[in-house]
Amino acid sequence: MTQEEFQQVEDVLKKIRPALKEHHGDLKIVDIKEGNVYLQFEGGCTECPIVDASVKDVVDMAIRGNLSWVKKVEILQPRLHIG
């Protein structure tokens, strides 16, 4: 991922974050490869029943609607830390 790609996606996420932060959640960029953006919900969003396909669709539409180079947005499941 380039710094420019990261910053462009980050700028779009800044518009989405206030709504997520109201519920003690957030989104972080995990990786960007070949036009595919990989994100992960954090905080309250990881266990929230409201984070369903409709929220993921809003994130997808916001990013792909603002950044023509993005082919796909994928929300990754949080990794479990055991031990």
TrEMBL record:
<feature type="domain" description="NIF system FeS cluster assembly NifU C-terminal">
    <location>
        <begin position="9"/>
        <end position="74"/>
    </location>
</feature>
<protein>
    <submittedName>
        <fullName>Fe-S cluster biogenesis protein NfuA, 4Fe-4S-binding domain</fullName>
    </submittedName>
</protein>
<dbReference type="InterPro" id="IPR034904">
    <property type="entry name" value="FSCA_dom_sf"/>
</dbReference>
<dbReference type="GO" id="GO:0051536">
    <property type="term" value="F:iron-sulfur cluster binding"/>
</dbReference>
<dbReference type="InterPro" id="IPR001075">
    <property type="entry name" value="NIF_FeS_clus_asmbl_NifU_C"/>
</dbReference>
<dbReference type="Pfam" id="PF01106">
    <property type="entry name" value="NifU"/>
</dbReference>
<dbReference type="GO" id="GO:0005506">
    <property type="term" value="F:iron ion binding"/>
</dbReference>
<dbReference type="GO" id="GO:0016226">
    <property type="term" value="P:iron-sulfur cluster assembly"/>
</dbReference>
